[in-house]
Amino acid sequence: MNDTQATRRIKIFDTTLRDGEQSPGCSMNLSDKLLVTEQLESLRVDVIEAGFAASSEGDFQAVRAIAEKAKTAVVASLARCRKADIDRAWEAVKVAVHPRIHVFLATSPIHMECKLRMTPDEVYKNAVESVAYTKSLCPDVEFSLEDCTRSERPFIYRVIQGVIEAGATTVNIPDTVGFATPEEMYALIHDILENVPGARDIDLSCHCHNDLGLGVANTLAAIRAGVTQVECCVNGIGERAGNAALEEVVMALKTRHTFYQADTNIDTTRIYSVSKTVCNVTGSRVQANKAIVGENAFAHEAGIHQHGVLANPLTYEIMTPESIGLPRSKMVLGKHSGKHAFSQRLEDLGFRLEEARVEELFVKFKALADRKKVVSDADIEALAIHTQPVREDQILRLDRFSVLASDVITPVSTVRVVFDGKLVEEVATGDGPINASFAAVRSIAGLPEARLEHYSLGAVTEGMDAQCEATVKVLYAGRSYRGSAVSTDVIEASILAYIQALNFALEVLRKGE
Ligand code: MN
């Protein structure tokens, strides 16, 4: 049997930057979002939902910047069924090569009565008129029936038929509250395709939340039933328990291809690197036993399993680590490794960098190899992700620091920073050496109100000589700025991360945004 025949093509609609960003603690700043956009395009997603342009000025700017940056993917902005929202969405996405406006309105009795305070007839009219108006601006229109899985069948069919006639090119069926079961999701999609005459001529889509841990299962059931687009997020982030995880849906279709008979356009070898990027920009890691991208997803602990895998990987592996871009380390890199081996490893780890950047990282790699014997893949990833490219116009740059920490005197930190090209030194105290160092930097930057929202410190690898990665989020004038850095010295990593966040804040301040 040739299982490549008669397969269906499923579009991947990624909403990491919209629904994903709505997860608690996952807010991203503009440069983070642009980095994720780049990664999503390298993964070859079909649609990037960039944000909700009407929700704030910051969101509008981000959607617009993403629309300018994306080259191959469709860029969508979410909008409520209101003229002002739709206009704002269009203003933000119209610069894209492939713009889309995604309008939504709730169709369940509880949402219509309690939230919208509208009758079903009013909802129908508002949906159809909004889609028609959107269509007058943008040819690519998606409509979502919010809380569709708790809506009534006849009304669902009526709304879908109405919005298709008004010009919707994609109709999305969200399980907004993560309530559906796979059997119900299958039946719902099946019934829509049977009962709505126009539903086969457009892209029917699903958007499944994970409140009962069924987000991916429901998405796969919807694919079996006939949807041609699925909405998902990298690492399964999103509101509450999150959305269907992109990597799990994609790898299920790939690994069980004979069963699903469905393909995506995703380059699965980019999955690992994209997952890492999302972890790093959101500051939230995935659990170790998370399918596909968790630390233990390809680890074999039991002796009998190890024996089997060594004899033939297929004994216990249904997919290879290489298929998601996780290389099996063959060589150990250390101080004697050359630039070629280093740049090859970077590539194996999913980083595609310019020559000058590789050169810069190689210098850091050499310095690290002097400090520790074996430089692991995790160390190299940390260098590539957390060390910032050297920029001429950097406002603040660490020159040197010295801390005095003890439990008998007040900790003191002296930090010297290049600030706008001039050396500035400041001494500050605090309840610990890091706290004191941050106070000194804050004072040099002239941002005394900057508030530390989040600070975390973690070891990149095991062992006494491990590098540590510091991540900070700083709140200033209502916006949050992230910084991260690695070093074998926890205080140095922390100061570098903090300086990076303040640099972002100063840049925004100077641009007068
Ligand atoms: Mn959602």
Shape: globular
Largest sheet: 8 strands, parallel, barrel
The helix/strand class is: alpha/beta
Uncertain regions spanning at least 5 consecutive residues = none
Radius of gyration: 25 Å
* Distance between the ends: 60 Å
β-sheet strand percentage: 15-25%
What oligomeric arrangement do these chains adopt? single chain
Q: Provide the helix percentage.
A: 40-55%
Strand order of the largest sheet: 2-3-4-5-6-7-8-9
Number of helices: 17
Name the ligand types.
Answer: manganese (II) ion
Number of strands: 16
Q: What number is the mean pLDDT?
A: 91
Explain how this protein is built.
The strands form four sheets. The chain has an eight-stranded parallel β-barrel with strand order 2-3-4-5-6-7-8-9, surrounded by seven helices. The chain has a three-stranded antiparallel beta sheet with strand order 11-12-13. Strands 14-15-16 form a three-stranded antiparallel beta sheet. The protein is globular, with a radius of gyration of 25 Å. The protein has 17 helices and 16 strands. The protein is an alpha/beta fold and 513 residues long. α5 (120-137) packs parallel to α6 and α8 (215-225) crosses α9. The site of manganese (II) ion has 5 residues, from loops.
Task: Tell me the layout of helices and strands.
Blueprint (H helix, E strand, L loop, with lengths): L7 E2 L1 E4 L15 H14 L3 E5 L5 H13 L4 E7 L2 H11 L5 E8 L2 H8 L3 H18 L3 E6 L6 H14 L3 E6 L6 H14 L7 E6 L6 H11 L3 E4 L13 H10 L1 H4 L1 E2 L7 H12 L20 H9 L27 H10 L6 H17 L5 H10 L9 E9 L7 E8 L2 E8 L3 H13 L5 E9 L8 E9 L2 E9 L2 H22 L2
Parallel strand pairs: 1-10, 2-3, 2-9, 3-4, 4-5, 5-6, 6-7, 7-8, 8-9
Antiparallel strand pairs: 11-12, 12-13, 14-15, 15-16
Helix pairs in contact: 1-2, 1-11, 2-3, 3-5, 5-6, 7-8, 8-9, 13-14, 16-17
The structure holds manganese (II) ion.
